[in-house]
Amino acid sequence: MASLSVELSTPTSGKYTQPTGLFINNEFVKAVDGKTFETINPATEEVITSVHEATEKDVDIAVAAARKAFEGPWSQVTPQERGKLLVNLANLAEKNIELLASVEALDNGKSVVMAKGDLGAVIGCLRYYGGWADKIEGKVIDTNPGTFSYTRQEPVGVCAQIIPWNFPLLMLAWKIGPALATGNTIVLKTAEQTPLSGLVFATLFKEAGFPPGVVNIISGIGRIAGAAMSAHMDVDKIAFTGSTVVGRQIMKAAASSNLKKVTLELGGKSPNIVFNDADIENAISWVNFGIFYNHGQCCCAGSRIFVQAGIYDEFVQRFKARAAANKVGDPFAPDTFQGPQVSQVQYDRIMGYIQEGKKAGATIETGGERHGDKGYFIQPTIFSNVTEDMTIVQEEIFGPVCSISKFETEEEVLKSANNSNYGLAAAVHTKNLNTAIRVSNALRAGTVWVNQYNMLHHQLPFGGYKESGIGRELGEAALSNYTQTKTVSIRLGDALFG
Ligand code: ADP
User: Fold this and answer.
1) Ligand 1 pocket, CB under 6 A
2) Which residue of the set 104, 192, 265, 396 is catalytic?
3) Residue 451 and residue 283: Cα distance in Å, rounded?
């Protein structure tokens, strides 16, 4: 494939030009080795197109571009101007929302309505970090009368960012927003399952006014391009969202190369707890949304559901009717709630877990099978009669599959809920404020929702306890991932000490 773009179309955007090159120095370029890879439409299992594939050599070129921009023009751009560029980018994303959401639905399989919701969050996130750009402040620290000392929050430098396929554009925004606000430059790799939306988004940087090399976006395979980024000697920081297995590899690569700074947003097996006194109708809606939103492909998915004994039987009956009524199907149909899983690999993995749950003796309350005969669709699936040692209760399935179990006391449910190597999110449903706060404080998780689920917001920090990650995304907290503190201490006058 020689060309750098193809003409494609989607049911909601019509025809559009899809860039296929690597976006380096504000231009689309071919991969040095001329390699490409295909991306598949998960709803039809057909090839959409091929894109250029970055290898180690392309990573070197992108990192060199980011280094040159960091040391050159980008260092001269004022904080206020950086903020303006981020806001320009948000405005351009808003102008192109239909196209970006359509491409996301095409390549990822999520419903175009949900994709538009993602885009709303992308735009909000970029504007929010645009607002932070001129509010990055140090401190004056008074140690003694003969010395004047202050700190500066300086950018880390060239940041490598590796994102997953479940929310391609949203993860891009979460990563680039705080990095650009604080004055870093970027080489970002999209996931190999979903390279298309990032390339369309890349066309906006030049128009927004970013100098060449500040943001470079490459398509590539994790174990090749991703590994080259993690081990690169001229990358100052790596930020990753994805599986815990890969997170470990990235941390090892950082440790054995140049000790680049590492932040990781990894997997989860989040508990969703419903007490007897909860508003049962609302709780069912949130529990359903908690696990089946984005086809269960959320790191914070509420996949372990605990319901108190007094309402357990009624809850299970009503929840399974609710789950079975979720509309599964064509991402471009306006009433679709659940599209296909992203790939054959993910489909097979999830079906493997379902088989394993059946074999271990858990009961399928609803689902458990393929949906339709084409595309990677899986029925919303609920397991009951589970025990805590079962693989389906321990491991992250990353699909529309959950377990539901009964509990009697608060003490008992806290023990079960915290019995996980993960600690990304959790939720509590109750009308009692004391229960809500007591349980929220006792849960070992980075985010706890009360009487809701999956309600992320760009102002609120998000990240993991335990093996769910290192560092926080979003909010003011994310800025510290992308700055380092410099202390300057000045001796006043001629006194030697004092
Ligand atoms: P999943 O298992 O859900 O596909 P991964 O953690 O494998 O999630 O992938 C998330 C991102 O990590 C993708 O962009 C992928 O290319 C990248 N990746 C996968 N393996 C590696 C690796 N060894 N080093 C660096 N990045 C990787």
Assistant:
1) 162-164, 189, 191-192, 222-223, 226-227, 230, 242-243, 246, 249-250
2) 265
3) 7
